[in-house]
Amino acid sequence: ADLNLKSYSQAVINKIYGFPLTVESLTPVNQKQVKVTGLIHWTEAISDFSLNEVNKLLRIEDVVFNLVSKNGSVVGIANDDEVVIKGVTMLKLSYLDSYNIALQSAGTQNIFNTQPLTVKRVNDFGKIDGKMKIVDNSFNYPSSYLNFFNYPSSYLNFDKSEFFLAKKQNSAISNIVELVTSAVSETEASKPAYDNLSVYQKAIQTGYIDYLSKPKPVYYLCDRNAAPIAFKLLNFPATANPLRKRQDTP
C-alpha cells in the first residue's frame, strides 16, 4: 500500500503510537510542538479480527506532537496517550469469518449515548479497543428456539442483541477488547531506519507474522456490563456464565 508518509522540514512526523500516519496538515505551536491533522493507517497492524472490509483510514485532528531528538534526528511523538478518532463511534468487522462484530467505545451506553472511538498508547504500542458487540444476525437460530435479552432489563434499555466478546483477566472477565495493536512499538518506529517506507512496512509484516505464530486468544461471551447473558431456550429463562462460554470456533 502507498502510505504517502510525509515529513515536516524540521522533524519526521509519519507515525503515531507505532501506526503509520499520513499528515494532511501541520501547524506549529511553538519551537518544540506542532499540531497535526492526518490519517492513521490503522489496519497495518496486528488483529484477531477480519479488517478486509473496513475503512483503512481513520482521521485524527489537531493532535499535539512533541518534536524530540532521537538517534541523531528529530521526530514527532504524540503528546497525549489517547487521541479521539474524528467522527467514528463504531467500526463493523467480522470474527472467524462467521460472526458480525460492531466495535463501540467503552463509554458508549446505547444508540442514543455514543462516544467516539480513540487510539491510545499502551505500554509503548498503539491500540484501538472497546466493547465488541456480536450483532444478532450472526446467529441462525429462530427466536422461538433461542432468544437473548438483558438481565436484568427494562423496557427502556431492552436490547436482545446485548451479546459481547470478553477476555479473561486472572479469574475475572473484561469486555474491553483490543481490535488492533501496532505491529511496531512507538520507540522502535521512531528510529531513523524506519523513515524508509519499505523498511517500515517490512517490520510491520514481520510483527504480524510473528503474532500469527503464537497461540490464538480465547474470547468469552457476556453482556454489555461483563455480566452473564440472559436468554430463553425453548421459552425457558436461563443465564450463561461468561467464564464457561467460549467463542473460539465458528
Number of helices: 2
Q: Tell me, what's the shape?
A: globular
> How large a portion of the residues is in β-strands, by DSSP E?
35-45%
N- to C-terminal distance:
31 Å
* Mean of all residue-level pLDDT scores: 80
Explain how this protein is built.
This protein has two helices and 18 strands. The chain is mainly β. Residues 1-5, 141-161 and 232-238 have low confidence and may be disordered. The radius of gyration is 20 Å and the shape is globular. The longest helix has 16 residues, at 197-212.
Brief overview:
This protein is mostly beta strands. 8% of the residues lie in helices and 42% in strands. The chain is globular, with a radius of gyration of 20 Å.
Salient structural properties:
mainly beta, single chain, 250 residues, 7-stranded antiparallel beta sheet, 2 helices, 18 strands, 5-stranded antiparallel beta sheet
Q: How do the helices and strands line up, and which of them pair or pack?
A:
Layout lengths: L14 E2 L2 E12 L2 E8 L4 E2 L11 E13 L2 E6 L3 E3 L5 E6 L3 E6 L13 E5 L2 E10 L11 E4 L14 E6 L2 E3 L2 E6 L3 H4 L7 H16 L7 E3 L6 E5 L2 E5 L10
Antiparallel strand pairs: 1-2, 2-3, 3-5, 4-15, 5-6, 7-10, 8-9, 9-11, 10-11, 11-15, 12-17, 13-14, 13-16, 17-18
